[in-house]
Amino acid sequence: MRQYSADLTPPWKKPRPVPEVPADPGLVVEEPRTGFCGAVVRCEAGTVTLEDRFGKHRVFPLEPRGFLLEGEPVTLVRPANGPVRPTRTASGSVAVPGARARVARAGRIYVEGRHDAELVEKVWGDDLRVEGVVVEYLEGVDDLPGIVEDFAPGPDARLGVLVDHLVPGSKEWRIAEAVTSEHALVVGHPYIDVWEAVKPSSLGIPAWPRVPHGQDWKTGVCRALGWPSDNTGAVWQQILKRVTSYKDLEPELLGSVERLIDHVTVS
């Protein structure tokens, strides 16, 4: 006698099939049981590793209907080309393959000078283009409160400002304290010039030299290190070439720039 395997589950109670999605690097998904949301950085036999926006990693099993993609359940599968490895931008963020530059936001990040802008572009440029954030330089912050007032920051046009030598009691500190808009964030680093935010080890020097008060800092540094002091712009370009990623920068600068990007990109 023929045996039948009866499935008595009503059709409306059966789980609907969900799409299978390759766990390609940079794909952002959510694990619904934990609420952990992050980008794929690694996919190996039976597991996928996600990284959230704070750099935290979590490993999850590749289970049917195990993730949400844009709010909808999906089954992540191993990519056809085998294990995936993380691809990162110079800032250490997970690179998103094929990502296009976003239309520029109304918000801005202001930095003090050209060298600051070039360094931010070198390390965070890929991230800023994806987020649609424009960086402009001010040639100093002496009139920062007036500049902020003219910009008129608001909920849809947030302003972030990076200030050199932002230490308690300094001139720069007093200027920053005068900015009161809730939609403007002023942060900085403790260095006299952004050159100092580049790690000495990345340049093959033991330390940044001390320059006597009242002497032009860049000129004094070049003289102390035996670098050409008559063209500090050319010296800076050589310094900039030695910066290849966030690992070449001091954490005080890294943290400040990341805070500004987060502030300007708040939805």
UniProtKB/TrEMBL annotation:
Residues 20-79, 108-265 form the DUF3097 domain. Residues 1-26 are annotated as: Disordered. InterPro entries: DUF3097_C (IPR021447), DUF3097_N (IPR053883). This is DUF3097 domain-containing protein.
